[in-house]
Write a structure and sequence with these properties.
23% strand, seven-stranded mixed sheet, 191 residues, alpha/beta
Length: 191
C-alpha cells in the first residue's frame, strides 16, 4: 500500500486544554515510553525527516505536540516511563496526558508504540489495559524492527500481542517496514 499525504505541518505544542488547537479535525494519539520512536513514526509516515523533532535522549518531548496531516491530526504525547528530566516536570506529564486522553472529543484512535526488542514494561501493560477499557480503536506499533531478524520480529509481535491483548504491527522508521500497514490502520481509525 502506497500512501502519500500531500500536506503536513506542525500545528502547536500544548500543556493544557486552553492551548489545544481549536479545530474539528479527527485526532489519533501516539502514546509510548520515552524514546520509543513516536516522532520518527510521524516523520516516516509523511516522508519528511524534520517535521517532528527527534532525539536520542529520552524525554525530549515534554509537551503535547499536534501535527496536521491532510485532513486529520496526529498527536505526539510525552513518553511515559524512564526519562532523564527533572522530577517536577515528569510529575506534570501524567495529568497532562490523562487530561488530553480523557477530555479531548476529537480522538478517534490511539496508537501505542513499544520497542520490539524488549518485552512490554509494566507501564506498557498498564497503558494497553487503559486503552482497552477506553474502548477507543487502538493498535500497537512495535518499533525498531530493523534491529532484529525477521524470525525474531514474528516471535516478538506474537508475544507483545499476547501480553498487551491488542493488535500489533512491526515497524521501522529506518527501512519503512510497516509504513503501509500503519497508514492503513490510520485510515481505518479515521473511517
Amino acid at each position: 500500500m502506497s500512501i502519500q499525504w500531500r500536506d503536513a505541518e506542525f500545528l502547536t505544542s500544548a500543556v493544557k486544554p486552553a492551548q489545544y488547537p481549536k479545530h474539528d479535525l479527527r485526532e489519533v494519539a501516539l502514546v509510548g515510553r520515552s524514546n520509543v520512536g513516536k516522532s520518527s513514526l510521524i516523520n516516516c509516515l509523511v516522508l519528511r525527516k524534520g517535521l517532528a523533532r527527534t532525539s536520542g535522549q529520552p524525554g525530549r518531548t515534554q509537551t503535547i505536540n499536534f501535527y496536521r496531516i491532510d485532513n486529520f491530526s496526529l498527536v505526539d504525547l510525552p513518553g511515559y516511563g524512564f526519562a532523564k528530566v527533572p522530577e517536577p516536570i515528569r510529575k506534570k506529564w501524567r495529568p497532562m496526558i490523562e487530561g488530553y486522553l480523557t477530555q479531548r472529543p476529537n480522538i478517534v484512535g490511539m496508537i501505542q508504540l513499544v520497542d520490539i526488542r524488549h518485552d512490554p514494561s509494566s507501564d506498557d501493560e498498564m497503558m494497553a489495559s487503559w486503552l482497552r477499557e477506553m474502548r477507543v480503536p487502538s493498535h500497537v506499533v512495535a518499533t525498531k524492527a530493523d534491529k532484529i531478524s525477521r524470525s525474531r520480529q514474528l516471535q516478538s509481535v506474537k508475544k507483545i500481542q499476547s501480553l498487551l491483548q491488542l493488535p500489533v504491527t512491526a515497524f521501522s522508521a529506518e527501512t519503512r517496514l510497516g509504513r503501509g500497514a500503519v497508514a492503513a490502520i490510520l485510515a481505518q481509525m479515521l473511517g
